[in-house]
Structure formats: structure tokens, C-alpha cells
Specification:
The protein has helices at about 25-30, 30-45, 75-90, 120-135, 150-155; strands at about 15-20, 50-55, 60-65, 110-115. The chain is of the alpha+beta class and about 180 residues long. It has a four-stranded antiparallel β-sheet with strand order 2-3-1-4, sandwiched between helices. The protein starts with 12 loop residues before the first strand and ends in a 24-residue tail after the last helix.
């Protein structure tokens, strides 16, 4: 079996995607307060900055920047997933188990990409903010409540009508064009 090696860039910025094992689940949006709490607790123990985030029913994307001298984003994501799972179970939600009896709320693996430069960061922030439209959850970016897009608008970094709507031609932010 091939061993995957993560790029543990000290003080790096990373685009991460974590997905629930059951892609039909809505646990992330149904328990968004528990997710926020899990992130907050993890940030107290292992500080990091969230540069952009979107929470969808079955997966989340976020960009995390680590402090100088620290490269351990895997522990942060692991703690967020574990704390969220614990909270969901305590709330009484049914969570299946893998054959080894481990709770199976999350897929075991996750996607990680090291942000290389400002253009790469901008492309990934755009991808994050447009993702609810891409998944047909809303027709405009501003209509999705679980997104850092709203913070970007409040800070004057993006206009409220950014991204247009899903009915417009060419709305595919963050994805490579051939």
C-alpha cells in the first residue's frame, strides 16, 4: 500500500476538505453549533487562523493558516472531527460504526492542498465561497448562511452580489478551465 505523505509546511496555509462518511447526511448543518464549538476548542489548544470556510450538509472546506514554527494541521483537523463526532453522539444522533467499531461519521481521509501564493489563495477562497451554488444548495452565494463570504462582505473585501447566480454562464469559481 502506498503511504501518503502530507506537506507539513511550517507556518503554512492549507486548503482542507473533510467529508462525512454518509454523503446523504446533513449532520454538519444540522449540528453547526457543535462544529463551531469543536473548532473553537481546537483553536484554543492548537491556534490557527481560518482564512475562509464553508460548511455544507455533508462536507466542509476551509483554509487554515498555522502559526510560525508549527506544521501540524493534521492534529487540528483530527481534533475538530473527533470533538464534533462526540457532540453529535451526545445530541442523540445515530452514528454508524466501521467494522472495527470505530465511529463512522467522517470519512477517514481528507483532502489537503498547500497554498502556494496569493493567486492560489484567491482561487481557493473563491472556490469555497461559490461551493454552495455549485452544489445547487442556493442560487446566489449570499444565500448560504454557513460561509465566511458574509465576513468578506462586511470587511469590504467582496461585494454582496459577488459570484452572480447559478443561472449565469461560466459560474465555476476556483476550478481549472481547459
Amino acid at each position: 500500500m502506498v503511504r501518503y505523505r502530507r506537506n507539513l509546511a511550517v507556518g503554512g496555509t492549507f486548503f482542507l476538505t473533510a467529508t462525512l462518511a454518509d454523503r446523504r447526511s446533513r449532520a454538519l448543518t444540522e449540528h453547526v453549533a457543535a462544529l463551531r464549538s469543536a473548532v473553537k476548542m481546537t483553536r484554543r489548544q492548537h491556534p490557527f487562523t481560518i482564512d475562509a470556510v464553508v460548511v455544507l450538509p455533508d462536507h466542509l472546506h476551509f483554509i487554515m493558516t498555522l502559526p510560525d514554527g508549527d506544521a501540524n494541521f493534521p492534529i487540528r483537523l483530527s481534533l475538530i472531527k473527533r470533538r464534533f463526532t462526540t457532540a453529535v453522539v451526545k445530541a442523540g444522533a445515530a452514528v454508524s460504526r466501521y467494522p472495527n467499531r470505530e465511529l463512522a461519521l467522517w470519512q477517514r481521509r481528507y483532502w489537503e492542498h498547500t497554498i502556494r501564493d496569493e493567486k492560489d489563495l484567491e482561487r481557493h477562497v473563491n472556490y469555497i465561497h461559490f461551493n454552495p451554488v455549485k452544489h445547487c444548495l442556493v442560487t446566489t452565494v449570499r444565500d448560504w448562511p454557513y460561509s465566511s463570504f458574509h465576513l468578506y462582505v462586511r470587511r469590504g473585501l467582496l461585494p454582496e452580489d459577488w459570484g452572480g447566480n447559478s443561472r449565469q454562464e461560466g459560474a465555476s469559481f476556483g476550478e481549472r478551465q481547459n
